[in-house]
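anyone seen this seq b4? input:
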Amino acid sequence: MSEFMRIPLFVLLLAALFAPAVQGRALTDEQWREDIDAAVAHILENHPRPFATGSRETFESLHAALLRDVPGLADRDVALRLAALVAVIEDGHTRLALPRGLPRLAHNPAHHRDDPAHPALLFGSLPFRFYRFEEGLYIVETIAGYEPYLGARVLAFGSSDVDAALAAVEPILYAENEHGARLLAADRLSLPDVLMHFGLVEDSGPVSLVLQRPGQEPETLRVPPYEDAENPEPVGPRYDEVPFARQYPDRKRWHAQVPGKKAWYVQLDEIEMFPDTPTADFFAEALDQARRHRADRLLLDLRSNTGGSGSFNAAIVNALARSEYNAYGRLFVLTGRETFSAASMLMVALEEYVNAIFVGEPSGARPTTYGDPRRLRLPHSGLTLRTSTLVWPSSFAGDFREFIETHVDAPPTAADFFAGRDPAIEAVLAYEPPRGPVAQMVELFEKDKLQSGLIRFFTWLRSPVDGSHAGAVDDLIVQGHRYLDDGQQTKGRFMMSMARDYYPANAAARVGLGRAMELGGDAESARERYREALELAPDFEPARKALARLDAGDEPEADVRR
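predicted toks r here
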């Protein structure tokens, strides 16, 4: 009798039941299903609002489909399907880690590695870090041996052009907004298994990249993935002079004078819980140095800050709020798509309490966000799942913005990056703010940054450093009439409403709002505003004339101020 025939039948049946359905798989169907269900349970039990933005129906449908499809999927495909399921929550802190080779080339907001239980679940990585600039997708870092391709623009992955590739990977992005998605999509395209999973290449072996190096014709490069956990030193562009903001890549924070300028620069790449120098002391030192060097502008750079401990944000806000730099036009915060978690919470606090101007790109997080994730190492795969446990609401009621936008746009470009220029710092040094809160609000309105303009005015109203707030009513009324004169009735009415709401004793504000209502076809509401103005000031001639004209049934005048 053969050795095979000596094995009891029930043992063979068990082996068949629990054997991986796809050849070479590390986990059985049952093990994967247990991991999937454990991940779903962890999210539903811990997340405070799992479907505040994502769809419960989509989540449940993807969960059921994944459990059904497990037998026909390879291990890494199961992991990617699970990552897509988690991404439905649309919360940057709720995510499934995809452990990978060459981790130092990866975007990793967790600040540490999450190695899997099985080598089969370590995703191979191309030896490139991609970044999506205004001009397209470029190679910005690599490893030794591939330096000639630094600065090359990526045109295609196999036969798929870059735009199609960026769109294809959207399902696995745990981004909270389009700016975070720009960052994550570029990162995920460096994983050949991701490219294969979404049909961008035929297999997870060497990837055919269509590249265009500066001044050369497009070329095809076949690149093998790195499938181990080696962590070589990344290689970036070579500069004759290292760009100022990139002088100390291994420091989490530092400060110095902008060369040749009356501006002091503070870089903060992580909000540390236990730094060598307490956060409050670090900012006290930075502010003292700025004063000693008679800097007229302070720059706080959060562009590479993916978070940390938000409990220390108060030390930063207090230091800036009490300083002489707490004035519009003196304090600038550089932000970008990597500004996330505790750093984006710091932006919200600065919006509310400090007269800061945001420069660069919008944040990679929503103003109302989630955090304090709880980690779960899935029992069989060893993949790490993080699930948010707390809501961190914006300071402003009803704040449904997808991101915290900038006051001054200065997005990174490939031309600037590879030439060693910093458009955000250049924008700060060139910027001259309008005088007065209404003019500052209008500047943002003209850029279609309506909520930022409104927040700017509210911040000014709450700020004690600006002295009396009474004078702004005249500017609101004047600007409101300008908008109405130009036919911009919505903005004109908004300005007049603000003047009436925040300066209720001002008769001219009531008349201005009445004019906006009258031009909008609401004669009865306009009549009420004119009467209110006369109650406040019985001899106020513009209100008396406007009311008499309405009572006579005459057409609205172009200007009721006379």
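The first strand starts at residue 95 and ends at 96. The radius of gyration is 29 Å. kinda curious what u guys think
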